[in-house]
Amino acid sequence: MTGGKDTAHGTATETAGRPGWARELLEHLRPAGRDVRRVVDWLAGAVDAEAALRDGAGDLLAGAPLPLDEALAADVASGRIASAAWDGDGRHLRLVRIGHPTGACVLAVSRRTPFDRHASDVVTHTAQVIELLLTAHETEAAGIRLRRATADLRLAILQLLMVEDTVSARRVAAGLWPGLLDAETACVYVLESDPSVRDRLAAECIERTQEEALVVRCPAVDGHVIVLSPREATAADLRSLVGRHPDTFVGGSVWQSLARTATAYGQAVSALAVARFRPDKTAVYAERTHPERLMDPAALRTWAARVLRPLDALPHHTRAEVLATTRLGLEFTAVATAKILGVSRNTVRARMDRAESMLGVDFGDVTVRAVVHLALHTQINLLDGQGPADSAASARRLTELLSGPAVSSWARQLLGRLDPDPRNVRRTLRTWIAEGANAERAAQALGMHAQTVREHVRSAEPILERQLLAAGTDLYEVALAHLAVGDLEQPLFAGE
């Protein structure tokens, strides 16, 4: 009865030289139907049987558990025999070995009736389809693992550059991208898009730059892609991408040495804020007059070395970690800094607490942060061929550096832009900085609402052409301007 049913099934569904069961089986190879479990379930229905797919260790991958002779199943899985048949206890069993790139599986099919030609053909061809599906799945999985490992490697290289370890960064990059970091200078670009399309945008950046740029999915901001490139042509490549993608923006840094990658990244983020309001959705960081450029370079370097001298007591490697983390921690939040460096938030806070303690200061004070930021970035310039600190200038203090005619003129001109505002925004800004950039405390000191304080500070941003509500270089320059004109008290440091 059963054999006749199988034969009738094969005859009735045969069309154009291919049985109906074969067409059904091939459907499982379509992209939408590639599921080994569905194939095993289909096999059980097609031959009126129970079916199970087990891995080499005997664990069930698909189908229903079947009682098997484990020794026989092990022989099939190991390849000692390719297939086996067994009859007994009212069951007819077939075992078929299925090889794939990382091992082998055993397909077991159990029927109450003997296997005729039709059932045998279905089992044989189903085993072949399962082998194809397993191979395709493992190939795809291997590709995903490779892409993920490559992305992790790119991020690791960027993190090494962020902490100025250019030697290790070049060593890591040399294996996969020879010559990528051979140049002494590079530009950093930050592309912003909807997070849902970021992976596609990153892939297009890699393709467009022909693997001649370091493309990293930003670990801190979901919609950002970071591109570091020593090639001038990269700017045009990225502009063409922005032109094809709506709601995508790009900000770029000026050329910086590889050791100043963190500085370049900050510049690119700053330019990105401008790009959002540009018709072409692109912007490059505009070099402007920074206060440190108006100071005596030798005296400034000597002062910076003296301020940071307490950290010299740390072992070299530890000191480098503390300095790099503090430099980024003054620019970004602890969470963002942790993601950029690939460490925990607690590690970031511990390193900054250590710097704070050894310098004898309180990072809750914006002027303290501004002065440490100035010292740290002055120290970076030592890596750019600016020369060592000048011992002859050792008597110069921050007060003298800020009281020079060029710095004083710059500070008066910058803060003077706020004077025409009848709301006395300049007083609000000064009080807000003095209160650690805390709107609530500033509001209490001024006798106004905290929201009014925030509105005053926000209205000062376009006038000063600097972002103030987000801590970073812009806020610290404004704080230094207040110190230069004497509107705020200068902080004291253990090193001074």
Q: Give the strand content.
A: 5-15%
Low-confidence stretches: 1-18, 382-393
What class do helices, strands and sheet pairing give? Answer: alpha+beta
Shape: elongated
Backbone CA Rg: 34 Å
Write down the overall mean pLDDT.
Answer: 84
How many H/I helices? Answer: 20
- Report the span from N to C terminus: 101 Å
Strand count: 11
Largest sheet, described in full? 6 strands, mixed
In words, what does this structure look like?
It is a single chain. The chain is α+β, with helices and mostly antiparallel strands and 496 residues long. It is 53% helix and 12% strand. It is built from 20 helices and eleven strands. Strands 6, 7, 8, 9, 10 and 11 form a six-stranded mixed sheet that branches. Strand 3 and strand 4 form a beta hairpin.
Supply the key terms.
496 residues; alpha+beta; 6-stranded mixed beta sheet; 5-stranded antiparallel beta sheet; elongated; DNA-binding protein; DNA binding; PucR_C-HTH_sf; PucR_C-HTH_dom; CdaR-like_regulators
